[in-house]
Design a protein that fits this description.
SAM_MeTrfase_EasF-type_put, Histidine-specific methyltransferase, binds S-adenosylmethionine, methyltransferase activity, 4-stranded mixed β-sheet, 2 domains, transferase, 11 helices
């Protein structure tokens, strides 16, 4: 039974969070092609709040499609999980969808150690407190939090301390990655992280991927008329200003472009300069031309075909698929 929520700080020096400022400066000063800022800027406490607003909006089909898929298939998915498994959720967010799976595992009386990983500590504490209330007095499911990034987590799992905390030497480890988050990174990085997660025959990954290809519903979900997505994206610039300790980005100078690129099966969001701008970044001038774009985040839409290609590239097996028929939202079990 969960009486208190334990959060372990696994942030490592030199990993993403500690170095977010340095990464931001590096990205802004990178010469040549398209400029970008780290998508991690979007996920501070304010960003979590703004994202929660998005997920409850009727236009945001992806959240509902995934929740409906997980709710309808929870028993079957839970059956594929061995008793005694350690479930490690990457980018757990509010854990609401996860609750549906953990409840099914509870009904199946499977002892499970659940670890939720995320980068925002207050919302992690809140999510796990809600989860513990949701699960009630489950004697099968224990819950703890890990504060850190994906990279921190993979480093931690290779360390003695991480293996001890999660007790994964002789137990099955199931990574859980919901919310189509795997497609927020470049394809090669997704392949690489999947390969690194499934390094042993004891590990597997349950990942959900949005396969919708309908331009209208995608555009509506990612650029709602009431500006919810825009507020979320603009918060990335506010976070950048906080990190740089200077008012580098003046909100009035920037527009947003949020567009579906059908040929790449990607929705991409950019900050677009309304005029020529000189940014002073860490004492250096970065010149931005009028109309120049800074990449904020990508959300790709992969069908089963792309997931199969990802598995092939990572050298892992696609063991099971559960697909929601309306938006083609998929939940895939990968193993080796
Ligand atoms: C799209 S939301 C999904 C949240 C939740 N899994 C869901 O499906 O509703 C992405 C989540 O991943 C977290 N996140 C993003 N990048 C991360 C990183 N590099 N390391 C750890 N967490 C990250 C964010 O803080 C956020 O909570």
């Amino acid at each position: 039974m969960l009486t208190e929520v334990k959060i372990h700080d696994i942030r490592r020096p030199g990993c993403d969070l500690a170095d977010l400022r340095a990464k931001l400066i590096e990205d802004l000063r990178r010469p040549g092609s398209e400029k970008q800022i780290p998508s991690l800027l979007l996920w501070d406490e304010k960003g979590q709040e703004l994202f929660a607003d998005i997920t409850t909006a009727p236009e945001y089909y992806a959240y509902r499609a995934e929740l409906s898929l997980l709710s309808q298939r929870a028993e079957g998915i839970a059956e594929s999980v061995k008793p005694g498994t350690v479930i490690l959720e990457l980018g757990a967010g509010n854990c609401k969808k996860t609750g549906v799976l953990l409840q099914a595992l509870h009904r199946q009386r499977k002892p499970i150690s659940y670890f939720a990983l995320d980068v925002a500590s207050d919302s992690l504490i809140q999510s796990l407190a809600q989860m513990s209330r949701f699960l009630g007095k489950s004697k099968y499911i224990s819950c703890q939090g890990l504060l850190g990034s994906y990279e921190d987590c993979l480093t931690f799992l290779n360390e003695e301390e991480g293996q001890k905390l999660l007790c994964i030497r002789n137990r099955h480890l199931l990574f859980l990655w919901l919310g189509n988050s795997i497609t927020n990174m470049p394809w090669e990085d997704s392949v690489d992280i999947v390969r690194r997660m499934l390094w042993s025959s004891n590990s597997a990954l349950l990942v959900s991927v949005d396969g919708n290809q309908n331009p209208q519903s995608i555009q509506m979900a990612y650029d709602m008329p009431d500006g919810k997505n825009r507020r979320f994206l603009r918060n990335g610039l506010t976070h950048a200003n906080l990190l740089l300790d200077e008012g580098v980005f003046n909100a009035g100078d920037w527009d947003l472009e949020a567009k579906w690129y059908a040929e790449d099966k990607e929705h991409r969001a950019y900050h677009v300069a309304k005029r020529e701008i000189s940014l002073t970044v860490d004492g250096n001038i970065v010149q931005i031309a009028k109309g120049e774009k800074i990449h904020a985040i990508t959300s790709a839409k992969w069908t089963t075909e792309e997931v199969e290609r990802l598995c092939e590239a990572a050298g892992v097996e696609l063991e099971h698929s559960w697909i929601e028929p309306v938006y083609n939202f998929g939940c895939y079990l990968l193993g080796n």
